[in-house]
Amino acid sequence: MAFGNQGNAYERLGYYKRAIECHGQCLSIEKELEKRAREGSTCNLSICYHSLGDSKQAMEYASKHLLIAEEMGDKIGEKMLNQISEMFITS
Predict the structure, then answer these.
(1) Which end of the chain is more exposed for a tag (fewer CB within 10 A), N or C?
(2) Structure confidence at residue 52 (pLDDT)
(3) How many CB atoms sit inside 10 A of residue 65's CB?
(4) Distance (Å, whole) CA 25 – CA 41
(5) Per residue in 11-34, pLDDT tens?
(6) Is the alpha carbon torsion for 43, 48, 51, 57 positive or negative?
(7) How far apart are alpha carbons 11 and 74 in whole angstroms?
(8) DSSP of 14-83, one letter per residue?
């Protein structure tokens, strides 16, 4: 989705608050559409909140990401969460 791509661009530029707004909009649209692909939005939100130092929010979205990945049987999504978890531990 366009908001997700825009959020990724803001994230790469270091504009994490704006990235969170875009990823949040993407997640809202995906929820309305009952789209299970919102797994990516939850992952992106987790990374942005971590970059802002908000570990609580980051872990909340990481947990949502894992639940969706498990429900979908998405082993790659689960692996991605393991990488995110390592990021939390090393920072």
Answers:
(1) C
(2) 94
(3) 26
(4) 9
(5) 999 999 999 999 999 888 887 777
(6) negative
(7) 24
(8) T-HHHHHHHHHHHHHHHHHTT-GGGHHHHHHHHHHHHHTT-HHHHHHHHHHHHHHHHHHT-HHHHHHHHH
How many Å from the N-terminal Cα to the C-terminal Cα in the chain?
30
Residue with tokens 């825009």: 6
Separation of alpha carbons 76 and 26, rounded Å: 21
What is the pLDDT, as a whole number, of residue 66? 82
Residue 33: both structure tokens together? 């559409």
Q: What is the per-residue pLDDT across 55-69, written as a single tens digit (0 to 9) for each?
A: 899 889 888 888 887
DSSP SS3 for 6: helix
Query: Residue 11: its pLDDT value, please?
Result: 93
Residue 70's pLDDT is what? 80
Domains of the chain, first to last? 2-90 (1.25.40.10)
DSSP state of 1: -
